[in-house]
Write a structure and sequence with these properties.
Layout lengths: L1 H14 L5 E9 L20 H4 L4 H11 L4 H21 L9 E8 L7 E8 L11 H5 L24 E9 L1 H7 L23 H13 L16 H11 L12 H4 L6 H10 L1
Antiparallel strand pairs: 1-4, 2-3
Helix pairs in contact: 1-10, 3-8, 7-8
GO cellular component, one term: cytoplasm
GO biological process, one term: fatty acid beta-oxidation
Protein name: Acetyl-CoA acetyltransferase
Amino acid sequence: SSGLQAVAQAADAIRLGNADLMLAGGTESMSMVPMMGNKIAMAPSVFDNDHVAIAYGMGITAEKVAEEWKVSREDQDAFALASHQKAMAAIQNGDFKDEISPYEIVSHLPDLADGQRIITRNKIADTDEGPRPDSSAEGLAKLRPVFRNGQFGGTVTAGNSSQMSDGAGAVLLASEQAIKDYGLTPLARFVSFSVAGVRPEVMGIGPIAAIPKALKQAGLTQDQLDWIELNEAFAAQSLAVIRDCGLDPSKVNPLGGAIALGHPLGATGAIRTATLLH
């Protein structure tokens, strides 16, 4: 996401000597985006051409990934359930406390009884709202495919896809000199970053090409990785990447991912970076 790209650009600026301290991140308020006003009736012919179908949403690309990488509906639902279970366990253990900055929400609402008095309500936001403690395999199995159904045999549902969420995240990057000058204690060292292009109709499998490039630049091998944050845009895409790259599932998103925690598009990369740091 652009949040992760911002982190990479900040690191590049520091490595080039153009900056010493950079605050990089992203924000997204999907609840405020008017993207659901017009409902489009899909004609079956839309799905005949992948390059046309993908214009109607990333969900179609997830269906293509599930089809090409042979990711079953059952495996997608199981992955989604695990994401919720891991996220709930992390919240209960307080694993996100150090990376979340609580903030107060003040709401000013009219008193519906007389329409005159204004009621003020205060709420502290300090916990992710996405993870569902009541998620179950049975419940996920009952959900209908969102992007393909009926004769098209869809497998991607709202339950095994990432959630539309609001969120923000940021990280502070510093040069070695800045660390000394300001007495900072670094949480990690930025080593490498890579982007790779893939066919647009299967855009979610970009990490399959990007991960080897990033590892090569860093001089690392995959077995040296202990913790992997992989964005869960869709369970189908995540499983395709894990299987194709041969990633150890136990090392991928130990605290849950976007299916449970949400995917505020412009912020996700920075949020996942913050989770990795802590």
